[in-house]
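Sample intake sheet
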Amino acid sequence: MKLAPLARAIAFLLFSLSVWTQPIFAAQNETTIPIHVGVLTDDAPTSFVTSSGELSGIGIELFNRIYADLPVSRKWVHYSDRRKAFEDIKNNKIQLLIGSFEEDNSVHEHNITQTLPFFIDPIVIVSTKVELSLSEIMSLVFNRLFITILLGSLLLGILITLILFFLEKDSHPHMKNEKNPEKLSYCFFTVFSCFFRDLLYDPVTSLGRFLLGSWILFSVFVISVLSAIITSSILYLMDAGSEIIFHANDLREKKVGMLYGSNRLQKIMRQSDARINVYSNTNDMMQALANNEIAFAALGKTVLEKYIETRFDFKKKIQISSLALGYEAWVMFVNDDYGQIIFDASLSSKINYTINDYRNNLTMHQICSHYVKTPEQCVF
């Protein structure tokens, strides 16, 4: 009978322990709720798969640092199709998307918010190299600057010839007792052959001087073309190719490829009246460029550099225009409601706070230095 009170005490103790431990187990169960994170697997330097099969990149490292302080589990969802990844976050199949996606305010209607930009990248134009032709060389030679300088030199030479004629016509030994056509011919020849006086025979007839003077003038032009144009412009053409883009309007009616999710770039292309072809990944777009399905490809400079880093044969076939169409600002897309219950705040607000803090203490600079040569593009 004395064991009854002891049994009741033990039962009460076990009941109390179950009551006190239930919230703890419940909290632990909450931490197992996964966040589905979509990542582009071939989108360096933002997100990519290394040779060892691990995910890496600026966006991956940034999220991993944020995830370390979150009371949730993580499940990666790999994508090679940018369009499919974007559709899945719209349909709430994933709660966060990492890639070189540009700012896009249209996502708000799908209950998606975008984080602060974590990287900016200049947009460049890429085209394939082509063989040089005479027409391409001549079009480069007879540009507006060249014509202006040539005509200006001719006018200046004629003016100096007239001035020399009035100064020397009555005093120069070769001009005394000579008629004006002879004096003018000597002045003309003197002006336009001043650099060749020791190398050329001095004609004694007016026709000879005019003829030789004209030939010297033509020779100056030919020498200029051969020495300046052939040694510099043709070398530039061999390196840059025949299609040189000086302005976005030069893309008018041209087939231009761009990646899905480049919202700002798409607006620029529409303003230039380019014929836009949208691609789901960088590799498909570059293959289309190599197969002449498109004339140009527009994408982030860093994305291009990472793509051609190990593709040496492809690198030799392309040219990069010096024209920059602007900058892409890469963001993460987050389900707007995710985290409201677990964190008492949206996940996007936590990410934005971390990005802003990492900018100020230069942690973003440190992260970017692991993947790109210009880590300052992470701090702006």
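Comment: The first strand starts at residue 34 and ends at 40. Residues 127-133+243-328 form a domain with the D-Maltodextrin-Binding Protein; domain 2 fold (CATH 3.40.190.10).
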